[in-house]
Amino acid sequence: MRKVSLSLLLVASFSIVYAENWPGWRGPGSLGVSSEKGIPVKWNMSQNVKWKAEVPGLGHSSPIVWGNRVFVTTAVSSDPKEDYWEKGFPQIQRKPDSAEISWKLLCFDRDTGTLLWEQTAVRNKPLNARHTKNSYASQTPATDGTFVFAFFGDQGMYCYDFQGKLIWNKDLGTFTMRNGWGMGTSPVVYRDLVIQTCDQEPGGSFIIALDKRTGTTVWKTDRDEASSWSTPFLYLQGSRPELIVNATRAIRSYDPATGRLLWECHGPATSITAPTPTSSNGLIFVSSGFIIEEVRPLTAFRPGASGDITLKEGEQTSKNIAWRQLTAAPYIPSPIAYGDYIFVLLDQGFLACYDARTGKEIYGKQRIDVGANFSASPVAVDGKLYIMSEDGEVYVISAGPKYELLAKNSLGEAVMASPAVSDGKMFVRALKHLYCIQ
User: Fold this and answer.
1) In what order do the strands lie in the sheet with 206-211?
2) Long-range pairs of 222-226 with CB within 8 A, sequence gap ≥ 24
3) DSSP class of residue 12?
4) Looking at residue 202, what is its pLDDT?
5) Taking the CA of residue 213 as centre, how many other CA atoms within 13 Å lie in the half-sphere pointing to its CB?
6) In the list 220, 398, 417, 425, which could disulfide-bond 429, CB 3.0-4.6 Å?
7) Tally of domains within the chain
8) Please, are residues 391 and 87 in contact by the beta-carbon 8 Å criterion?
9) How far apart are CA 76 and CA 55, in angstroms?
10) Per residue in 38-64, is it b (16+ CB within 10 Å) or e — as a string?
């Protein structure tokens, strides 16, 4: 009986380890890296697509997974004509949508795609505009396994339990973003806190930490920043926890427990910052790459710094900065550090690879596909990169020192959201459906 019990315990333990959760933007550790095995390299609608579920409305937020539940947010307009969206680089400026929007959190069964429940957080006319490439539900939710936190910008932060019961909601204010482009920064969970960056212009930017059980403000730190779209990154591998926040005027590190500023680095940066920082090999990588600007830096920071660590003119390295590539950064997709390499996906269809420790170019820009544009951030699984284009093509590329395209798979509809991986499955949120690849 002891042997049988031990065997069952080992099987249960293996199942828990194998069914890795994907609790927020960029998954475990916000790295975009999964330890799962067996994700298909090739698929089509009749092979290796386990299920397909309809997602109403318009939303670019990514799915998250905990246990047997998949959560996504969306914004459902009372006038379907207002669910207008454009891929590529549209320059159309808009007023706020005129119809009422229902901001929703949806919960699906991980194994079958069955909709378990949906909750409408709020129904209102939007207060601010959005870019025609953006949506009113572009912020990915986050979970700690007990609660799910969904941030809807001007409509506030909402906390639900796994049965769909509203626990609390918090009004964080209204946010005027540059050129009416809308928001995109997702919440992150640290211990008993849910942390949200709220950068805007012409002023009033801040970062705030709420008690995850009650929504009470634990700390709030003002920021000398304009609009930014980068989600904060929690670095927990060093001698102290650091919350790295990427923005235009400075890259800053905060104590996530108190909001105290630890260090900051000014310039160079592009006027628009979207990629989320990442890390590997004891370094923190931060990028800023607005495509029309000449300098698009990718910088490797050493953790543990203090004060102002801005480089002097002409310098590219220091005690706190291991290396910097001045023209390597992407515009919207976040770079991914995997093993000894950091891969940079450029919006207009190129992939480049650098040595994570030194910044040395392993291979320069490789064209993935003519005419392809990318907004979703890649994920790394079992030695491969999975990269989703705005046209709904999924490219599988070797995550090694030599560029090698392994497969191209089509979903048949646009993809703006980054995928999630859990329990040997990949979840891809396209424009109108959620797909499970297995």
Assistant:
1) 188-190, 193-198, 206-211, 217-222
2) 223/197, 223/199, 223/247, 223/252, 224/249, 224/250, 225/199, 225/249, 225/250, 226/178, 226/199, 226/200, 226/201, 226/202
3) H
4) 85
5) 2
6) 417
7) 1
8) yes
9) 10
10) ebbeebeeeebbebebebbbbbbbbbb
Consecutive H or E run containing 143 = strand 142-143
Pick from 197, 187, 88: nearest CA to 142: 187
Round to the nearest angstrom and report the end-to-end CA distance of the chain.
Answer: 36
CATH number at residue 288: 2.130.10.10
Q: What is the pLDDT of residue 6?
A: 47
Report the candidate in 351, 134, 295 with the shortest Cα–Cα distance to residue 229. 134
Q: What is the mean pLDDT of the chain?
A: 93
CB-CB neighbours of 76 under 10 Å = 22
Is the CB of residue 159 less than 8 Å from the CB of residue 148? yes
Residue 427 near residue 415, CB atoms below 8 Å: no
Q: pLDDT, tens digit, for every residue of 303-331?
A: 999 999 999 988 889 999 999 999 999 99
Residue 270: phi and psi, rounded to 5, are -85, 170
Residues forming a β-bridge with 66:
69
> Are 281 and 302 within 8 A, CB to CB?
no
Residue 341 lies in a domain: yes
Q: Is the pLDDT of residue 3 over 80?
A: no
Task: Please give the Cα distance from 69 to 22 (Å, whole number).
Answer: 10
Q: Rg for the chain (alpha carbons), in Å?
A: 21
Residue 11 has pLDDT above 60, yes or no: no
Residue 224 lies in a domain: yes
Q: Identify whether 56 is preceded by a cis peptide bond (ω within 30 of 0).
A: no
Both tokens of 320, joined, read 């706190």
pLDDT at 90: 78
In a domain, 13, yes or no: no
More confident residue, 434 or 267: 434
In sequence order, what are the beta bridge partners of 420?
427
pLDDT band at 267 (very low <50, low <70, confident <90, very high): confident
pLDDT band at 362 (very low <50, low <70, confident <90, very high): very high
Least confident of 62-66, 161-165, 202-206: 202-206
- Is pLDDT larger for residue 46 or for residue 366? 366
Residue 303 is part of which domain span?
A: 21-437
Tokens in use for 51?
Answer: 């299920």
Q: Is residue 410 part of a domain?
A: yes
For the CA atoms of 314, 318, 322, 328, the dihedral, rounded to the nearest 10 degrees, stands at -20
Written as one letter, the residue type at 296 is: R
353 and 343 in contact (C-beta within 8 Å)? yes
